[in-house]
Amino acid sequence: MQYYGQLIIGPAGSGKTSYCNILQEGSFKRNIEVVNLDPAVDFIPYKCAVDIRELICLSDVMEELGYGPNGGLVYCMEYLLQNWNWKQEQLNNIAQDDYVLFDCPGQIELYSHIDMMRKLTQFLVYSGFSISSVYLVDINFIEDDAKFLSGLLIALSASMTLELPAFTVLQSVTLFKTKRNQEIYKASQIQLINELVTNIGIGRLLYLDISDDESIDNLLGEIDYAIQFGDNLERDDKSYDHPEQQL
Fold first, then answer.
1. Which of the 8 DSSP states describes residue 235?
2. Cα 168 to the chain's mean position, in Å?
3. Structural domain boundaries of the chain?
4. CA-to-CA distance for 39 and 25, rounded, in angstroms?
5. Is 203 in contact with 211 (CB distance < 8 Å)?
6. What pLDDT band is residue 111 in, cutting at 50, 70 and 90?
7. FRET partner for 236 with CA separation of 20 to 30 A, picked from 39, 74, 172, 220?
8. What share of the chain is helix, strand, coil (3-state, %, to 5)?
9. What pTM does this model have?
């Protein structure tokens, strides 16, 4: 059986959960299921097909084992990896024609320094998933060149670790259309980073206005092409050459 979906990653506060919720509510010509892989989350706005908190919860680990937040999260992800049968049973409840979003924790070390998420993606691929990684970056990061470039390089590192078709997405692009942000963008090195990411073939730098259905459709079209989802697999190259062309 073949399944399709996205691994939604990025730092805390980058909008991963909101992204999953909006896509599920809009459907976008597919039945979207969401899998929560964050054992620390308190509230989930979307309908959850699989929830790691049913297996293990960060607050319980911290209370019973005395771990701090970071160590506790690492323990939770290790525990998830060890429970192969639970993972497989949960995924068996997902229909073949469902499109699955995996809402991941925001601890960057899980993607850049530890191989837990890579092992998880290997399990998903082995289970029949064709997935891409989608690394969300808040567009406000561009107001600090060093912070923004650091975020993009972390995204690049995560993409290499996960060994999946990779997309780095600048989210909330409506904030990007002010004169100040355009000047910051043009003065920064983002265009060089975009060329680097594209040329070495491990990802693309895209943008997303989460309030605009057309913007979401364009992004999904790019991802669908990469994972070979759907009947129309022709990529519309005019949609995403460089983000600056859309300003």
1. -
2. 8
3. 3-230
4. 23
5. no
6. confident
7. 172
8. 50, 20, 30
9. 0.85
DSSP state of 32: E
The pairs formed by 65-74 with CB atoms below 8 angstroms and a separation of 24 or more are 69/40, 70/107, 70/109, 72/40, 73/39, 73/40, 73/105, 73/107, 73/110, 74/107, 74/109, 74/110, 74/114, 74/116
Q: Which residue matches tokens 């567009």?
A: 139
Sign of CA dihedral 119, 36, 227, 141: negative
CA dist 70 and 107 (Å) reads 8
Q: Does domain 3-230 match CATH 3.40.47.10? A: no
d(CA 231, CA 241): 23
CA distances from 88 to 84, 94, 117, 126 (A): 6, 10, 16, 11
Separation of alpha carbons 24 and 34, rounded Å: 8
| Spatial distance between the Cα atoms of 195 and 230, rounded to a whole number of angstroms | 28
How confident is the model over 174-193, as pLDDT tens digits? 555 554 555 555 545 556 66
Q: What is residue 45's DSSP assignment?
A: -
**Among 38, 108, 43, residue whose Cα is nearest residue 80:** 38
Determine the pLDDT at residue 41.
Answer: 94
CB proximity list for 186: less than 8 A, separation 6 or greater: 244
